[in-house]
Amino acid sequence: MNGDDHGSIIVITGPMFSGKSTELRRILKRYEIAHKDFVLFKPAKDNRYSDTEVVTHDGLSQPATVVPVDESCRSIILNASKNVSIVGFDEVQFWEKSADLPGLARELALQDKTVYATLLNLDFTGKPFQSAGDLLNHANRVISLTAVCRKCGSDNAVYSQRIDESGSPVLTGETIKVGGEGEYSPRCRKCFLDPSTLLLKRDGPAKATAGRDPIIVPPGMPKERVPSI
To answer: Measuring CA to CA, which residue among 101, 104, 138 is closest to residue 8?
Structure first.
């Protein structure tokens, strides 16, 4: 909440249980105390704790406007943002590519609005979400948070391990899956078990790389320089 944030995009990112929504709520509460109007948008897909509020993992809540995650959200967001100078988005990774939320955030910033967005930094395989790069590249500020690793207790967890009922890592599945405690576990770099590596050990190269794009070898490249999969 800085005086020079007008027309800015501020991204709050980190793994599960790092306090992204808590930080966004804290910032918006300060605007509320300062009697500044804002609007907070929540993806309709995220109904873990409430259908109408952004609720943190520790139970704090903030009223929000629930919008679709496809392109139909655009008109709703623009109309609801007309008379405010601060716009918040929770869980940006849940919006579909067709919604072009990064582009919408830039459009709002061009209207001299301050845009805040929370974003899960990596999916359960340890890879960034498709929309994340575009949003982060256009951010004026990035607030990067870490979580406490559930395995070793270190305070530098940056991964979100998807786990099953026994606590074992889930190796395959849809990229976007809403979940909380019991389904995800924050892990540091040393404790994170890469699903791709585990699949490779379990199934061998043929099955583990099934469905991946083939490697195109440029003419004249020596075989020893061909990247491994």
So the answer is: 138
CATH number, position 101: 3.40.50.300
176 located within any domain: no
Residue with tokens 């995220």: 46
pLDDT digits (tens, 9 = 90+) for 138-185: 999 999 999 999 999 999 999 999 999 999 999 999 887 776 678 999
Q: How many domains is the chain partitioned into structurally?
A: 1
| Pairing outcome for strands 65-67 and 38-43 | parallel
User: Which of 59, 46, 63 is CA-nearest to residue 176?
Assistant: 46
Taking a C-beta distance cutoff of 8 angstroms, is the pair 152, 159 a contact? no
* Residue 159 forms part of a structural domain: no
Residue 80 lies in a domain: yes
User: Which residue type sits at 164?
Assistant: D
Which residues participate in catalysis according to the annotation?
A: 91
pLDDT at 227 over 60: no
d(CA 117, CA 89): 5
Closest CA to 171 of 148, 203, 149: 203
